Amino acid sequence: MTDLLHTIPDFPTKLYTHLIPSLEKNLVTTTDLLTLEPLEVARRAQLPLLDVKRLTKHVLASLQSQLGLPNAKEALRNYEAHQPADQQVSILRQSGSAIAERWSAISTVDPNLDAVLSGGIATGYITEVTGESGAGKTQFLLSLLLTAQLPPAHGGLSRPTVYISTEHPLPTPRLSQILRTHPKLSALPPEQKPSLSRIFSIQTPDLESQDHILTYQVPVLLTRHKVGLIIIDSITANYRAERSSTSTSGAALGLRSSQLIKLGHHLRTLAREHNCAIVVSNQVADRFSPLSPPPPPQRHLIGSSPPPSSTSSPSSAASQGMMPSLDAALIPPPAPNPPPTHSYPHQPPLSSSIYPPLTLDHQQNFFTGWSSGPPLSSSSSSSSTRPSQQVNQNLKTPALGLVWTNQLACRVALIKEHASSLPAVETERGGEESGAENTLKLWRRYMKVVFADWGPSTGVMDKGTEFEIWGGGIRSVVGKG
């Protein structure tokens, strides 16, 4: 596209600064843009098909106007007047009040869970829901698919949603059950009630199809149907399936890191330009912690001799011609080294006594959602155990590492705790839970915000707000158990 300004000197290239560098890199000229199919150009330059079509139409209209064809100038003015708002004025150049007016959130239709999320799942950002298997990730995402369709007065966006699955198809029977069971959803009039027909479902069995769908099909859906929520369940499956069998060399890890950065940039651009919420689920891996903190390193002043070895004996000293005298035998042994001190003005958190503050093992307590402090169940630790040894034995780490964490605006951790020793939970009807529901009651689940751009996070040592899975989706548990 280096010849574009030579062909059309007054062409507004500022509207297409996100396209022109890729076109120039792949040696796409103005002639190619006008003679080749837009799909071929999009594949060649790795660009969204809709953006390439928009650029081609604009170049063609400008060229016809320059050549003086009948009605060409009026057609060009009409085309530029109907450009999308995100093409006319960049979001990064808008005022703070204009951006604040665009802010909206998707409610969970539960006041306690909305309070944890500072109003709900915000639009314009990437939100991750992470947790181990059975923690309730998919149940939470299915509820969002329906609540995003609600009117703004009820906490929704009045916009359709997209569900991209990498492991299993969309569970429509479960969605129908949520619509029938949840009292707030079932009581709405038909014109305001969420519908399964407003959910677009796509399945991506491998990484190649996932990249194609996110690059070419999703932007078209966002433009044509004004989608308000995109869910990817899960973002980890295809990467684990295709990268686990390959080499773990530096080149392979570097390639995956570059792919994650590119994916994060693309999703952030979609969320920002279309003001939609993008929610992804992430799997976790086990993280191990030591049973006791490592001993502090021995330090000695420069010029001083190290302390004698504990294995020294009079016989070994005599063999070296260094027989101890009687006066030396009467000298008391040196006092033990004082305990190491820290530079914190106050007592540091319990987890900082296990790892040094600047290590990743310590810092990941603040962005993974699982802290290596006291265990989740207070009954599992005895009172005689020292605080530094009260280590959570159920530590998890979200997959895809720190590179993917840097692409997120919010991380929500769903923590599952075994509670088989608790008594059976009574339902609102007064009867005892049975069957599959009784199996679910063997676990207690908690929701916590690890970090978020639009609200405060849950404390590092706090479990979060307890919730349960029921016929209507998920709901907070207050005063139970």
**Overall number of strands:** 13
Calculate the mean pLDDT score and round it. 76
Q: Biggest sheet: strands, sense, closure? A: 9 strands, mixed
Percent helix range:
25-40%
- Number of helical elements: 20
Task: Identify the strand order in the major beta sheet.
Answer: 5-4-6-7-3-10-11-12-13
Structural class: alpha/beta
Approximately what portion of the residues adopt beta-strand conformation? 5-15%
Taking the alpha carbons of the first and last residues, their distance comes to 66 Å
In brief:
It is built from 20 helices and 13 strands. The chain is 36% helix and 14% strand.
Verbal overview:
There is one protein chain. The chain has 481 residues and is of the alpha/beta class. The protein has 20 helices and 13 strands. Helix 5 (49-67) packs antiparallel against helix 6 (72-81) and helix 13 runs parallel beside helix 15 (250-274). The longest helix has 25 residues, at 250-274. The chain is globular.
Chain-wise SSE layout:
Elements: H1 4-7, H2 20-25, H3 30-35, H4 38-45, H5 49-67, H6 72-81, H7 85-88, H8 96-102, E1 105-106, H9 111-116, E2 121-122, E3 126-131, H10 137-147, E4 161-165, H11 172-181, H12 183-186, E5 199-203, H13 207-225, E6 229-233, H14 237-243, H15 250-274, E7 277-282, E8 284-286, H16 314-319, H17 326-330, H18 360-363, E9 396-398, H19 401-405, E10 410-418, H20 436-440, E11 443-452, E12 465-470, E13 473-476
Parallel strand pairs: 3-7, 3-10, 4-5, 4-6, 6-7
Antiparallel strand pairs: 1-2, 8-9, 10-11, 11-12, 12-13
